[in-house]
């Protein structure tokens, strides 16, 4: 297989520019670069590395270290090359005797206030100060030890120095500050700081948190993470790692590097957390992972990261991880560890026996958005080709299936329209039902940067998320709607745009169906859809809504970003279509800076949908009823495909309770914690006779499993993920699977165990690349994708085929995939979930930055220091009415169930609304949620549940019973001697 072609990975000193070409000479070499390029970067382009400390190509030039001085013919002095732009005909000298002398003197000053412990320093071999000392030829320094920041006991001052001396009896050096090790992942050692400002600038320019600053002047200058009493853990720092990556010394250093040592090799791979799809260099020492460093050439993250992707990888070696297959006959029995052959034979016999007894449609599969495209493809193939039915579903349907349906109906394709880079050209950012700073933090940083540059922001959310107001940004409009009224709000926005003539008529006439628009315009123009008429229903101020509509329609390039707060409703599909209507109304499609962009919650939600994980669709979103599509797969697979759609997850559970669905293979998905109405899920699982869980840990679903097949982490597999911008990224094996097999191999082994017993031909895949070849051969949007292309280009965005050999960053540029854009009537239909005297509040759910989904991975890392339990956010008014104080135990009850958790009193939520996360199984927030779902896709209505909150003394009886059952179900017999 073709090796990864790594682009030029040098630090070029300053960011790249675009502009007219400028030609100059540097040390006699002619170079042509874009206008605005720094002299430092121009020199790097011809292979001349100018020494630097404060400069790095991920940050704007700063010009403070004075190590990068050069001489320019015809100019006085020695300007800093990082802050000096090129000019036509400029002649630069980077190695003259004069600049060499200056650089050596500057470096001497740095070294004079720096501990010379290089041999024992954790950054030895990976320290820019050390490298630059060598680059300028510093072999000695003339300054005697004196007042300094690094000697804990104090130093002896040079003769004649009048500053206060530190005697042996003194308490120590007042300038010395010990290292701050409060953050679980990195330490801050002020004694090694050279005050280059790179960490502060990274926090500002890259992350946008503004948690760090330089306090003091001159010799008293220090990096500060807040007040004098604050440490890094108590500060506003979000542990994204940007400061650590920017630091040129060991001042900010990963604790893993301190403990393990400097890495000596790296593998470029893709993060397995959210749908941003960040690229990382997994830096290794032998086969041990030392650190994850965001890859500067990653097109989704552009060298940035968040606390999860950067640091929360320790779960891969957690003691809870199961590495050996296990089986049992009944769920009340303890697990027995067995070999792979015995486990697979047991599973295959059980599943085939169920089909023989109950029929071929009595078993099914569930796959996960945490798995690769190749693994997901094989799981749906297992259902269709080996099981002989279409009983295949995925967590992607449980979160974003309304995106597929809604955008498919309006635009003709089931995915977002832009790449992430597009946000750099937007003028109005419209965020609805998403919390990017917590759910998609790396993209949120890019979004915040654009807002600081002057873009305007509209937020539609029941909760005051951080984007509404945080450091240096504030939303122009926040519309805190009542949960469940998305459709009414979106239609009211369209009402304003149409009735006030703010639509882009030229775009509508040329790109959309004009007759359908006429019908739609008549619908939204009805006075019942006006902001004033809907205000009582939605809770949104009519004037604020009108102002937001005006801003989106007339503010320039408008881009819409939405998340699960849109899709996880009974009218999720209707809201998605309403959002598409808004974009078409205003002509905000088909160019950079605009579009409709779903923010996918998990790393491969898009890919799981693409790969045909739904019971009614084969790969590429083609319905199983289409004979020509079935024939293509049948010819390739050598088996017939059922033309009837199979069962979705809730249908599987219903049929299990009814006694007709008996067996399940569940790969990487924990439906007992992540799916709604926990009691119903438990009842369905308990009614099944063979549940196979294929995962890393004994998750909640495994409480009801009969077979456990150990899975592999993203660090142990090859394959691809497809992120929220349709970008197909390579996942590369960093270490060998600890269980012996990658997940695709386990699925193939199970398939072959069943095929062998049935006397049918077995699968013969030898590598995920072979699976991708089959995907490309059967899925039009992937037709041009192979691993060789991905190794060459790094990543591509589908559609990638003959018409688009390099992929498609922007969709619908000249026309929609369906031809003409389709306006669809979006009638508001209230959810059946109603508040009332027993349940007067509305519960909505979401995520938090430090934890991920059901927490199976992040709960097994140091991230728990920031979020050790789910809490219930409740408005002060509602708390006072119920006698609830901060930190009290409260019972949260709905028509479906009840649980107890601690209260957090906050005005982030409106009166009448409460909010919690779902990261911890001891809370099991989904025991509260109902079985109501989206009318088109069955996507659960997680975001609207009528509840009551009352004081409590601790966990409910149900929680205690659940914990006892879980402990009983997780017993493992000791291995035989």
Automatic annotation (TrEMBL):
InterPro entries, alphabetized: 2Fe-2S_ferredoxin-like_sf, 2Fe-2S_ferredoxin-type, 4Fe4S_Fe-S-bd, 4Fe4S_Fe_S_CS, Asp_de-COase-like_dom_sf, Formate_Dh-H_N, Formate_DH_asu, MoPterin_dinucl-bd_dom
Lineage: superkingdom: Bacteria
Boundaries of every 4Fe-4S ferredoxin-type domain copy: 184-215, 228-257
Any one of the GO CC terms: oxidoreductase complex
GO BP term, example: respiratory electron transport chain
Species whose genome carries this gene: Roseovarius atlanticus
Domain 2Fe-2S ferredoxin-type: 20-98
Gene Ontology molecular function terms on file: 2 iron, 2 sulfur cluster binding; 4 iron, 4 sulfur cluster binding; formate dehydrogenase (NAD+) activity; metal ion binding; molybdopterin cofactor binding; NADH dehydrogenase activity
UniProt KW keywords: 2Fe-2S, 4Fe-4S, Iron, Iron-sulfur, Metal-binding, Oxidoreductase, Repeat
Protein name (Swiss-Prot/TrEMBL): Formate dehydrogenase
